[in-house]
Amino acid sequence: MIQVEGLGKRFGDTWALRGLDFRVEPGTFLGVLGRNGAGKTTLLRILTGQMTPSEGRARILGLDIADRPIGLRRRLGVMPEAGGLLEGMTGEQYLCFVGQIHGLNPTLLRERMGELGDLIEIDFRQASQIAAYSFGMKKKVALAAALLHAPELLFLDEPFEGLDPVGSDRLRVLLESLNSKGVTVVLTSHVLTMAERLCSRFLLVDQGRVLVDAEAKAMGEEVGRLEQLFLSKVDRGLARELSWM
Questions:
Q1: Cα–Cα nearest to 189, from 174, 203, 209, 170
Q2: Bridge partner list, 57
Q3: From the CB of residue 4, how many other CB atoms can be counted at a distance below 10 Å?
Q4: Please, how many CA atoms are within 13 Å of residue 80, restricted to the half-sphere of its CB?
Q5: DSSP letters of 49-114?
Q6: Mean pLDDT, the chain, as a whole number?
Q7: Helices 135-147 and 106-120 sit at what angle, rounded to 10 degrees?
Q8: Which residues are CB-contacts of 99 (< 8 A; sequence separation ≥ 6)?
Q9: Which CA distances in Å does 175 have to 27, 93, 119, 169?
Q10: Parallel, antiparallel, or unpaired: how do β-strands 2-11 and 14-24 relate?
């Protein structure tokens, strides 16, 4: 499904990613975890064709991402962490635009928009532009756009950010359902408790390198085990108190 070999990305003299090697088999629910600036979003942008690597290569569904194959994009669903929406449009206009790009006929497009709206609790028909939406509502529009065309591989960058508890739980159930039907999911998240519930495998990234590549079943069933592992690997013991308080 995904094969990464020696992947790296440099910005000037700084390597955001360096020497990444891993494979993802079909049906995996992969959690890419790490602190802010660890390289998670950069990795997803490279894998989804939004950014070109400085070294190494990656193949998805047998296709080299460096070739930017159009056919591959139609098989992927991508939910970016922030931005990426045409905020001068209404939610309905934007999803119609996305649906047309993927070749959905108007009837099917309307049916899917209605079902998605009911499921994630948003009315795409409201007249206001996306620019006026709350952060959580923008995330819901981005999620709907990623799912409209029934992709076989989903890339979700911080999908739980900005969602209230009910919205988060609905998204969790939805992702569990999709994965159980064979959809491969690659997710970044700082919500470790949710990642622990969902993911079958974890990549822990820090300073652009993979520190841990582990199957969830190998970590045991103890609640909080993932958080313990995360902190033991990336917490460098920085100051925990203010000098003046």
A1: 203
A2: 5
A3: 23
A4: 13
A5: TSS--SEEEEEETTEEGGG--HHHHTTEEEE-SS--S-TTSBHHHHHHHHHHHTT--HHHHHHHHH
A6: 90
A7: 140
A8: 109, 112, 113, 148, 149
A9: 12, 25, 12, 10
A10: antiparallel
Model confidence at 228: pLDDT above 90: no
Task: Give the angle 141-148-142 at the CA atoms, nearest 5°.
Answer: 20
- What pLDDT, on a 0 to 100 scale, did the predictor assign at position 162? 85
Given CATH 3.90.1570.10, say whether it is the number of domain 1-75+154-235: no
Question: What residue ranges do the domains of the chain occupy?
Answer: 1-75+154-235, 84-150
Q: Taking the CB of residue 75, how many other CB atoms lie within 10 A of it?
A: 15
Q: Where are the beta strands (DSSP E) in 110-231?
A: 153-157, 184-188, 201-206, 209-215
Distance between CA atoms of residues 210 and 222, nearest Å: 23
Nearest to 50 by CA among 35, 24, 72, 32: 72
Which of helix, strand or coil describes residue 22? strand
Does pLDDT of 235 surpass 80? Answer: no
Q: Grade residue 232 by pLDDT with cuts at 50, 70 and 90.
A: confident
Does pTM surpass 0.85? yes
From 165, 229, 208, 161, select the one nearest 40 (Cα to Cα).
208
What angle, rounded to 10 degrees, do the helices at 135-147 and 165-180 form? Answer: 10
Contact residues for 215 (Cβ-Cβ < 8 A; gap 6+): 200, 201
